């Protein structure tokens, strides 16, 4: 059971009087009066919002205002409310690299470059892509002018290492979203 005794709540910017975010990463609606059917006012009790975990492991929260809904990542709501950002850095990093741990003491503002270079994130991304089979599919490198096969590689990752063509560009070529990568045509074997 979590200890919520030291939890601090602050209003969410642009949603004051509707929602609050806590130092532990939770989001709640606040008690308020809403217009019910036929224009009657009725009290509405505030509740803790559950959110959902997206494909990358982040908690997605849906907030509503004036009948319009908007999606937010919980860690950004926490950082905006609790962490000063004097350098105007654009991204929020999870210090322990757990995307669902949105406690204020686990978050920090970072630049895009700082976030990419932090911890094991880059190697985890490559590992995930390999596990999903995205980088492990065999590919063929083809001369763009002669249409002759130049080389075969057991994976996009190996092709990137040996040719200097980015695996993401090779992938886009193989899926027909891009014509050339590093001046060559690419196809799945």
Automatic annotation (TrEMBL):
HNH nuclease domain: residues covered: 74-115
Stretches assigned to the NUMOD4 domain: 7-63
Pfam families assigned to the protein according to its UniProt record, in alphabetical order: HNH_3, NUMOD4
Molecular-function annotations in GO: hydrolase activity, acting on ester bonds
SMART domains tied to this protein: IENR1
Origin superkingdom: Bacteria
Entry protein name: HNH endonuclease
């Amino acid at each position: 059971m979590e200890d919520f005794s030291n939890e601090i709540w602050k209003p969410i910017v642009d949603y004051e009087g509707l929602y609050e975010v806590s130092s532990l990463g939770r989001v709640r609606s606040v008690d308020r009066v809403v217009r019910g059917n036929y224009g009657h006012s009725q009290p509405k009790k505030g509740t803790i919002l559950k959110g959902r975990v997206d494909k990358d492991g982040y908690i997605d929260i849906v907030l509503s205002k004036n009948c319009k809904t908007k999606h937010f990542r919980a860690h950004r709501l926490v950082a905006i409310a609790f962490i000063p950002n004097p350098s105007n850095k654009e991204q929020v990093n999870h210090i322990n690299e757990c995307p669902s741990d949105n406690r204020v003491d686990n978050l920090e503002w970072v630049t895009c470059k700082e976030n990419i270079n932090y911890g094991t994130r880059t190697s985890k991304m490559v590992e995930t892509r390999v596990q999903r089979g995205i980088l492990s599919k065999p590919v063929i490198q083809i001369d763009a002018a002669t249409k002759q096969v130049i080389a075969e590689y057991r994976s996009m990752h190996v092709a990137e290492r040996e040719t200097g063509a980015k695996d993401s560009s090779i992938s886009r070529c193989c899926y027909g979203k891009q014509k050339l990568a590093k001046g060559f045509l690419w196809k799945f074997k």
